[in-house]
Amino acid sequence: MFRITTFGESHGPAVGVVIDGIPGNLPVNLDHTQSWLNRRRPGQSGLTSPRSEEDRIECLSGLENGLTLGGPITLMARNTNRKPEDYADISRVIRPGHADLTARLKYGISAESGGGRFSARETLARVAAGSVAWQMLRRAMPDFDCCAWVQSVADIECPPQSEESLTRDMVDQSIVRCPDGEASARMAARVEEVKTAGDSVGGVIRCVVRGVPGGIGAPVFDKLEADLAKAMLSLPASKGFEIGSGFAGTRMKGSEHNDALTSIDGKITARSNRAGGTLGGISNGGNITFNVAFKPVSTIFMPQETVDKQGNPITFQPKTGRHDPCVLPRAVPMVEAMAVLVIADHWLRQRAQQPFIKI
Amino acid sequence: MFRITTFGESHGPAVGVVIDGIPGNLPVNLDHTQSWLNRRRPGQSGLTSPRSEEDRIECLSGLENGLTLGGPITLMARNTNRKPEDYADISRVIRPGHADLTARLKYGISAESGGGRFSARETLARVAAGSVAWQMLRRAMPDFDCCAWVQSVADIECPPQSEESLTRDMVDQSIVRCPDGEASARMAARVEEVKTAGDSVGGVIRCVVRGVPGGIGAPVFDKLEADLAKAMLSLPASKGFEIGSGFAGTRMKGSEHNDALTSIDGKITARSNRAGGTLGGISNGGNITFNVAFKPVSTIFMPQETVDKQGNPITFQPKTGRHDPCVLPRAVPMVEAMAVLVIADHWLRQRAQQPFIKI
Amino acid sequence: MFRITTFGESHGPAVGVVIDGIPGNLPVNLDHTQSWLNRRRPGQSGLTSPRSEEDRIECLSGLENGLTLGGPITLMARNTNRKPEDYADISRVIRPGHADLTARLKYGISAESGGGRFSARETLARVAAGSVAWQMLRRAMPDFDCCAWVQSVADIECPPQSEESLTRDMVDQSIVRCPDGEASARMAARVEEVKTAGDSVGGVIRCVVRGVPGGIGAPVFDKLEADLAKAMLSLPASKGFEIGSGFAGTRMKGSEHNDALTSIDGKITARSNRAGGTLGGISNGGNITFNVAFKPVSTIFMPQETVDKQGNPITFQPKTGRHDPCVLPRAVPMVEAMAVLVIADHWLRQRAQQPFIKI
Amino acid sequence: MFRITTFGESHGPAVGVVIDGIPGNLPVNLDHTQSWLNRRRPGQSGLTSPRSEEDRIECLSGLENGLTLGGPITLMARNTNRKPEDYADISRVIRPGHADLTARLKYGISAESGGGRFSARETLARVAAGSVAWQMLRRAMPDFDCCAWVQSVADIECPPQSEESLTRDMVDQSIVRCPDGEASARMAARVEEVKTAGDSVGGVIRCVVRGVPGGIGAPVFDKLEADLAKAMLSLPASKGFEIGSGFAGTRMKGSEHNDALTSIDGKITARSNRAGGTLGGISNGGNITFNVAFKPVSTIFMPQETVDKQGNPITFQPKTGRHDPCVLPRAVPMVEAMAVLVIADHWLRQRAQQPFIKI
């Protein structure tokens, strides 16, 4: 019911999103949207891509005097810092780990400069839409919120955090968006190290969604965790998703894993949260918690064996280009945005599907 | 484009599926479908649920003389072994780890006996549809195939297998569907042990899809790995998904992770497969490999703290019921079916979207 | 949001429907559903097809003790009166006006006996689903109702009826479902006349939907009238749709056509209804009125020039077969069912899309 | 499969469209697109709205060097001639025949100036998308084409035209887009007459689509004629649709209506075309012919009884504003665009659904 249609290539004129299914007469604050985009944009620190993009949002439709009219909201940012010349050496080769090969297999063509439609620049549109969804949900449910952080970079782990009280502001204190000071410092050092070597690192983002009412989701194909999994695996460079106990839970017995139930003030509540906030595809009223795995960024500045577009073997070492040695810090707002979008859609669906149940 | 609509509750009259988008004039062999269902049905061994269901498939529409007519194929199995009395003690409580709570939050009602729509019995419909999709794909692509196996039960791991040559028949040699003899024996012993204790265990299923042409998938929301993730997280008891290097890959550097490319007989090919067969959401022509995490089954025969339907705290210990101590062996054909369904849909989509490219 | 998936061929084992999106804990009376089916089934009078089908409905899923569980409701009727031998002479030819030709162009195959998926027998599934949708809407909106009747057969017109007070019972007094006694008698005589000649006639059905709240629909592609048009043109043998003033309105001036507005008890109301109950694709709170054109049934028992399946010219005259000389009386409940289904879907959508507006 | 998402209000910053599902590596000529938009834009003659909009198309994504990249194509035109002051008197009232009332019922808000999302200005986006679809189809099927014209204005009828040879250029010779010189002159005079009186007129557009291969469409809900009906009823001010013989055909007997079949050069062909090019929802390889009814434009410059936004009865006579006295000439390219979009979608679907049939 809450649908987004994104458009734009990394080196085309603009990147944007059309948001359908937004209610009418709803206040939408584009400064909030800009603030979310600012968390995602490149050039925030020495750890991220030096591409300098303001990512200044422009609204093309859907709002009048700060209120939604009910039709689609269209948000767009122009690509201002296009430097095709930085990509000249790239345009001749099929880069390992990139979509150069698969774009050509699918479409018979790939963008001449940059990643085109496959660039992570597209996620700008999702973060903008996420902000709008967040504003809608917050208006209906003041307790709703979402917070993600960097749980690991390579083998450096963030110790467990309070999922009840952690905030985006607390996370943003860290240049790598890891809320533990010591882990953050070690992660930053590691990213600097691989950057200097021309290499890259991966890691894991952890996310908690709070204040989701029980009953959101679906029992079969559109399980809430299934749609979250799809949303997260649709982010560039993501390779895995786990909800609640996840892969670690496969080593537990049922008697260890089941969350015991109790009743608090008449509300049935789980005493623990190995489930991760859903049972049978439907929210149980508790926190929704999940992890997303991101591989090390494919673009590195070291020599690699590959082929050119004619299929000839070559050793390729890009000289220039604007890429992050570690995508994790900038992926935090992407994960949050996708989570919010999934909840928004299922919240609207539950309203439609259960006209006789108040949510 | 290849759509399935499933229906049925565990203790209703029947479970079935309507398959839309199947081509006309295609031979479909229902014996093949029955053989896939037989791998999923309960009562195959002492390790699985004693519920005795023949799962005899009936075709209600779509076929004439063994050929598709182009309209929807409907396949159904009657529920013959319904024993509501086995569930009498369950009907009073909200079971930990089950959807009893969330069904009531969502729908204001839950099935009186058994899991209703939330029961894994629904997956019968998916396996039946998977067999039809497999037959369609095989006709177009004789090299296409899919093979899943039990990679771990609790902390017992299957050693690496040959992803090129492993077959379903080889997997079926093992009572737990783990192709390594020694690991299989240890897994079987572990399942027996927890069964005797009235407990349950989880594990991981690994799957490889072979013979998928390059170019299948989509660059943004409908990435092939995103749709696979959704499909797998839509299976009952699944808690995680990872493709290719997955969570382990987050600890690697880009220089270690990127799959070097080479050209073999004019076809650009990756020398390794940390990608798991997709790049940027689109198949690269190599094997698609992924893991799915399954939690320990929620139904155990040990005392648990919970509440009854009135919210009163009680200690609950089911006396009877028909449940698997370990869902993994029966989940193997479910994982395969869902993988095949995702490929079938994207294969048809690629045919539509790229009318000028031959696949 | 309210989705139906139908299945079945005219001479296959069964025809049925899976209804998704139905709320949980809703009473559904299958006797009501059977009564709607009885209005559609063949053999009601000497004016309709002699095919004798009980169309006895069977519920395969979704209900327990007369209440919805929230999952899909599946309703099915077995085909009991299959007589392939009646269709032996048909199976060799491409019948004019039928889908024999287009089925083969699309699917490379057509059903050997009867119309297969193209038979009007499929509408049984729609009428069953319409009854369920009607029960849902009536529970939420006791004033909601829908009534269709035969407005014309060939050139015989029914005089204007009271759209406020006409009921299905009043319509059912007439063997041709035309509520005007004199017109009904003339229509019945005409149908008998063409039946005797082995020929067929067409006509127009008029429908009024009452009690639809304002605000249902969408402003652009999914206009309420657009979805009604699609629903009606999806009925077998239908050739046209017009809402409100329709084609006749094209001859009016704007000053004649605009419905003047007034305020009655604080509710803004149109003084006339040339609009037909919608403006800009959205219901205005008044009656929704539309007409549907049905061509004369293609199957006639007179000699016709056509070709056989090898493309050889032949003169074809079916000897036997079970077909209506006039589809109009049986199309009345089909039109009602499709109208109700469209309203149900848009009503649920409006609930989802406007969470801050009460409907 | 060929999806368009439009956005924009009549007095917002821009109107545009995102086109998804377009193949990669396809030449798309935006001059062609601009030429289609020029046929739709206001101010073409004294018979249309004096609103002066260049409707200059801008491409935001999807093309590089004139070739599609496979991702969404986004086309946009800025609204340059916004004159909210022209609409000051309108903003206080609920105009008869407009969506002012229903927008407020649905969304709780309506645009302060102009029609907002309900304005026919949105159709600009559809015509742009139609041009892209046309270019795709023409590349695959050089014989494909589409031509619409004004069949009637009020009671003035265009005599029958040659559906095989009529072209858009021939239609554009006429200021009202009626290819018959005498009828065109009478129509133009009638439009001038009502314009002078401050009134408006309606009419009918007829459309023929040529070169559509047989087998396009679907047998049940997504019949080709059903999707055409929906597409046409989604156009502003349209009130009716009929395919082939349409409403007139309801007065015929089956023996008069059925199109006899013959075989020409091995291709089975109908000798007449009362079917309108489809049977059972699927194209038969002949011309697709249909009519669309348009009501007289709601905005007139004569006094009308209505209410203001507080519900008080008033007599309303707009002084200024930019509206067409007759929408028909500008609706011609809208009808063509929507027809082409429906064919494009079904053509792609048929490619997907019938992988073993060549089209």
Instruction: Enter the CATH topology name of chain A.
Output: Chorismate synthase, AroC fold
Distance between the termini of chain A: 16 Å
Which residue ranges of chain A are poorly predicted, with pLDDT under 50 across at least 5 consecutive positions? none
Considering residues with a beta carbon less than 8 A from a beta carbon on another chain, report the largest interface and each chain's count. A-B, 108 and 108 residues
Give the overall shape of chain A, derived from the CA principal axes.
Answer: globular
Mean pLDDT over all positions of chain A: 93
Topology, element by element:
The structure is a homotetramer of 359-residue chains.
Chain A (H helix, E strand, L loop, with lengths): L2 E5 L6 E7 L9 H11 L17 E4 L1 E2 L2 E2 L4 E6 L14 E2 L5 H8 L15 H18 L4 E9 L2 E2 L10 H5 L8 H16 L6 E8 L13 H10 L4 E6 L2 H4 L4 H4 L3 E4 L2 E4 L7 E2 L2 E2 L4 E7 L9 E5 L4 E4 L11 H26 L6
Antiparallel strand pairs in A: 1-2, 2-6, 3-6, 4-5, 7-17, 8-9, 8-10, 10-16, 11-16, 12-13, 14-15, 17-18
Helix pairs in contact in A: 1-3, 1-9, 3-9, 6-9
